[in-house]
Design a protein that fits this description.
Length: about 160
């Protein structure tokens, strides 16, 4: 459940970031970008933060959710945990590769050179996502306490026979 809520924050933020640059360039192709940090430093900071959260950086909700998933999978079966860990590594590798290509390096073309940084509305939306990602990553206890009783009830119902 924590991973699902974390995924909502991080994926929502990443899709918002895609929307920000698409609104300015009308392209979703990675090859059309490069060097965005040179023209959009605030956007780049948010983007890199969400990419790191997506990769499971400690202190973010991505780490908490992924840690709980791997721990639970390990308690179930070592091979399932290995598979889950391997897919997390693949996802992090792709995220880091994409971040390097879009955000860093030299300015790719004149369209990137003409980009303007995020405005107040975009900063507010990305800031709310960042706050949720940090709060859940630093102190997930209120959320886990809130979910404990409903999940226990759900497990009790699943464990009961239907005969």
């Amino acid at each position: 459940m924590v991973q699902m809520i974390s995924h909502g924050f991080i994926s929502g933020a990443m899709f918002s970031c895609v929307g920000v640059v698409y609104d300015r360039m009308h392209s979703r192709m990675i090859r059309d970008y490069g060097g965005v940090v040179n023209t959009m430093p605030w956007f780049a900071a948010f983007f890199v933060f969400f990419a790191m959260a997506n990769s499971g950086l400690p202190g973010t909700s991505g780490f908490v959710g992924e840690f709980m998933v791997i721990l639970s999978a390990f308690q179930y079966n070592v091979w399932v945990a290995f598979g889950a860990g391997f897919t997390l590594i693949l996802g992090a590798a792709y995220t880091l590769w994409m971040t390097k290509r879009v955000i860093f390096g030299d300015v790719a073309n004149h369209h990137v050179a003409e980009l303007t940084d995020i405005n107040g509305r975009e900063a507010l939306v990305l800031g709310v996502f960042a706050l949720g990602t940090l709060v859940l990553g630093v102190y997930p206890k209120p959320l886990t306490d809130l979910m404990e009783a409903p999940i226990a009830q759900l497990l009790t119902q699943l464990a009961a026979t239907k005969l």
